[in-house]
Recover the amino acids of this structure.
């Protein structure tokens, strides 16, 4: 793992270019595509999964809903790999380049696997480009509303089964961008639409995350996905990118863990490396794990060789004090 610690006193469409010369990019480990060795990792997008235990509503719109998976109980009263205690809550934001063509359903295998691990997992839907109200600012309105409301809604739905004071924000691809952004709202100017004085997140996990919106636009990832989300490029809307681009909103108050495939040709791993370097330089606590041999989807596939590294990153966030 390439760990960039706090300094003392201080998806399926679009192809990006991977910088093969990233220092440390070959320091992870991923033994092939899946445990079977031949499965296409992108089949996780359509793989059946157990249905959620609850569907919660955080707003009145048709897409302002969230699926909730509760931790599976064990005979000894514990949950998954954890002792008998209230389960930590993961709010997971799905990817798909913010487009309507990709919804939360493909997060089912990941969410159900984490529930077996002992986590409560909440996967919100949000308006996306190609839908009425999607893109700027509706997508951000929905994510902010979901992240603010869901811990309380989960508490009402699950009670003492879930520790809603222990919230981990996570996301894949474009959802990784949204998770980082949601945690960065404390850095927005007071009085702006999405500003929060404090954040409930005790850690953030970005999986193949779009950590830099301006770079996403410059590289034309997802065939112009960032420009579609933002209503134009950073030259046209610099004020929008200033409040929506994680690369401009560092350091976060909570620790960040990034896991990214070195062979990712959808979102280049260089984005995660660059974000980690930038955030650490600003005084943030960031670790970046680059996995050789892995592409874009292994990091959300519980059958892949990358999955233990994803679990290690998530468990590690939970183990940190705070």
């Amino acid at each position: 793992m390439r760990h960039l610690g706090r300094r003392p006193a201080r998806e399926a469409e679009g192809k990006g270019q991977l910088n093969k010369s990233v220092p440390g990019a070959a320091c992870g480990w991923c033994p092939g595509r899946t445990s079977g060795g031949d499965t296409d990792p992108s089949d996780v997008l359509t793989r059946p999964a157990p249905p959620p235990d609850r569907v919660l509503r955080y707003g009145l719109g048709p897409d302002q809903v969230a699926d909730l998976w509760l931790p599976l109980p064990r005979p000894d009263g514990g949950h998954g790999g954890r002792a008998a205690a209230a389960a930590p809550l993961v709010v997971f934001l799905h990817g798909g380049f913010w487009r309507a063509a990709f919804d939360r359903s493909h997060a089912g295998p990941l969410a159900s696997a984490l529930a077996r691990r002992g986590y409560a997992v909440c996967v919100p839907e949000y308006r996306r480009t190609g839908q009425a109200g999607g893109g700027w600012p509706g997508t951000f309105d929905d994510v902010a509303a979901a992240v603010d409301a869901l811990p309380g809604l989960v508490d009402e739905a699950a009670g003492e089964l879930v520790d809603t004071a222990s919230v981990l924000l996570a996301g894949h691809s474009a959802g990784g961008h949204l998770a980082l952004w949601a945690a960065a709202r404390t850095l927005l100017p007071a009085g702006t639409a999405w500003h929060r004085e404090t954040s409930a997140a005790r850690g953030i996990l970005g999986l193949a995350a779009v950590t830099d919106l301006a770079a996403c636009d410059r590289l034309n990832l997802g065939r112009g996905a960032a420009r579609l989300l933002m209503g134009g490029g950073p030259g046209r809307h610099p004020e929008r990118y200033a409040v929506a681009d994680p690369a401009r909103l560092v350091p976060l108050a909570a620790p960040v863990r990034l896991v990214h495939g070195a062979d990712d040709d959808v979102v280049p791993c260089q984005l995660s490396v660059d974000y980690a370097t930038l955030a650490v330089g600003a005084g943030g606590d960031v670790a970046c794990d680059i996995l050789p041999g892995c592409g874009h989807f292994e990091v959300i596939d519980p059958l892949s060789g990358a999955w233990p590294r994803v679990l290690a990153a998530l468990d590690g966030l939970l183990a940190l004090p705070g």
Summary: The domain at 2-319 is CATH 3.40.50.1820 (Rossmann fold).
